[in-house]
Specification:
By secondary structure, this protein is α+β, with helices and mostly antiparallel strands. It has 9 helices and 11 strands.
């Protein structure tokens, strides 16, 4: 039996959760998977087995379950543009995913997909496994990151996003997108990323980013970081934000959050020890960062599997 910690009026309460019906799903996700709708503007009906496409947005005040994870008659593909979630399989294995994460779920694979607080923007496709439009995949599920896919896959994702979900008149674009994503799927030990640590950076900046990722618990003040990078503090502050789109303190906080999530999910280490190990200093500082960047409280992440 699983449990979920939820805040209500500032107080935490424990909810008994047995599956996707444990929490109320917002109406925008209340989708009819068996709807037989025309998929082309010229009036042709959708061929049997041709993927259906959904572009869904919502803003959540508390975690809720996504119903598409409980549709084992379909193969499903989900890509997160904005938002976070916990994927929990029937054995209780939990995987955290965030913006850029890609999820393939084969038919007959049942799991819970618990969405975190905050804004969500998801691209989703599902199809009957008997169709011939998408190749069958041997593994029951795959979770990988968009950064690991090919440039053509990324370009197709951008094109889909530019259309804001309006793909009825370009079914072959949708088909190319799904097939390219599944073709590029990889086994990724880190299916989520908050930080951008590689790219066309100057060598000194690249070395600094790698040092922060390797040791997020270090007191990375501007003076120390500038010394490691070999820049003046002023120059480092300027080029850091220009290249990473965030300042040094926020980047360090994101690195610490990345380090803390696996420990919260997959260990019994006390919260105060995790906050110290990851460089937050206090459990409250860690709680604030975890909630901001994951949409969950630390107790919710740890409590997802019950006691």
């Amino acid at each position: 039996m699983s449990y979920l910690q939820e805040n209500e009026n500032g107080k935490e309460r424990k909810i008994r959760a047995t599956g996707s019906t444990a929490l109320v799903t917002p109406p925008i996700y209340d989708i009819a998977l068996d709807a037989d709708k025309p998929r082309y503007q010229n009036g042709l009906t959708r061929p049997l087995g041709f993927p259906r496409f959904l572009h869904r947005l919502c803003d959540l005040e508390s975690p809720v379950y996504h119903p598409i994870s409980r549709e084992p008659d379909f193969a499903r593909y989900l890509q997160i543009l904005t938002g976070t979630a916990l994927l929990i399989d029937e054995d209780g294995k939990t995987t955290f995913v965030s913006a850029g994460s890609c999820i393939y779920l084969a038919e007959n694979f049942v799991c819970d997909l618990l969405l975190g607080r905050g804004e969500h923007n998801w691209l989703t496709a599902y199809w009957e496994p008997t169709g011939h439009f998408v190749p069958s995949v041997s593994e029951p599920y795959a979770i990988f990151h968009l950064d690991k896919t090919s440039e053509s896959s990324k370009a197709l994702t951008r094109e889909i996003c530019l259309r804001d979900g309006a793909t009825d008149d370009v079914p072959h674009l949708l088909l190319a997108w799904i097939n390219s994503q599944i073709h590029d799927r990889t086994t990724n030990n880190t299916p989520f990323k908050f930080t951008r640590s590689s790219g066309e950076f100057e060598e000194n900046l690249q070395l600094l980013l790698e040092a922060i990722l390797a040791s997020p618990q270090t007191d990375w003040n501007l003076a120390r970081a500038a010394q490691v990078a070999g820049y003046s503090p002023f120059h480092l502050s300027r080029i850091f934000r220009a290249n990473l789109a965030v300042g040094l303190p926020k980047f360090v906080e994101l690195c610490r959050t990345e380090a803390a999530i696996p420990l919260i999910l997959h260990s019994h280490t006390p919260m105060h020890m995790i906050s110290e190990q990851c460089g937050f200093g206090t459990p409250q500082a860690m709680r604030t960062a975890i909630r901001e960047h994951t949409g969950f409280l630390p107790t919710e992440l740890r409590g997802r599997g019950g006691e």
